[in-house]
Amino acid sequence: MTSLADPSLDALYRAHSSWLVGWLSTRARCRTRASDLAQETFCRLAEHPGLSLQAHPRRYLATVARRLLIDDVRRRKSERSFLEAFALHMGHAAPPTPERIAEAVQELTILVQLLGELPERARRAFLLSRVDGLTYGEIAAELGVSVSRVKQYVARAFAHCYIVAHGCPD
């Protein structure tokens, strides 16, 4: 790595980067991924100039790296899920490009955040309907509510998605 703009970050990198790669290697089980995550850790620190890490630098580095590792695992899981769904629904079509996979993962992440904003029952009714393919009657039995209530939950979820995607209708 070339010299960083922040001399304290440069010193931190020189003193702890090898340790961080080793620490990540045991958790990521891949030295290349560990190196990438270590690099990303220091890039994150570079976004916060003047951050003092003199007291416990390894503890802080490990915390940032652990969070990046968790994000990486989630992203890879989303990629696998997308590829499995693609194979299931598209059969022998040409596999998606890496760009399309990244785009799909980003869309799924946004969808998860969007659905996370809904009340629990509305979210659950929506997912049971759209993902699991249950009928409103089956969902009503599952949630212990009426079919009309399920319709309200699903409508609320659709309305929320529409408003987020297109803005509030006039």
Describe the structure.
The chain has 170 residues and is mainly α. The protein has two domains: 1-95; 117-170, Arc Repressor Mutant, subunit A (Orthogonal Bundle), CATH 1.10.10. The chain contains seven helices and no strands. The chain has helices at residues 7-28, 31-46, 57-90, 98-116, 120-130, 136-143, 147-166. Helix 2 packs across helix 3, helix 5 (120-130) packs antiparallel against helix 6 (136-143) and helix 5 (120-130) crosses helix 7 (147-166). 14% of the residues are buried.
Give a short synopsis of this structure.
The protein is built from seven helices and no strands.
Give the secondary structure arrangement, pairings included.
Blueprint: H1 7-28, H2 31-46, H3 57-90, H4 98-116, H5 120-130, H6 136-143, H7 147-166
**Residue share in β-strands:** under 5%
Distance between the termini: 54 Å
Shape verdict: elongated
* Total helical segments: 7
Topology pattern, helix = H, strand = E: HHHHHHH
Number of domain modules: 2
Strands, count = 0
Q: Extract low-pLDDT stretches.
A: none
Q: Label the structural class.
A: mainly alpha
Residues in helix, %: over 70%
Q: Using the CA coordinates, give the radius of gyration.
A: 22 Å
Largest sheet: none
Mean pLDDT: 86
Notable characteristics:
170 residues, Arc Repressor Mutant, subunit A, single chain, elongated, mainly alpha
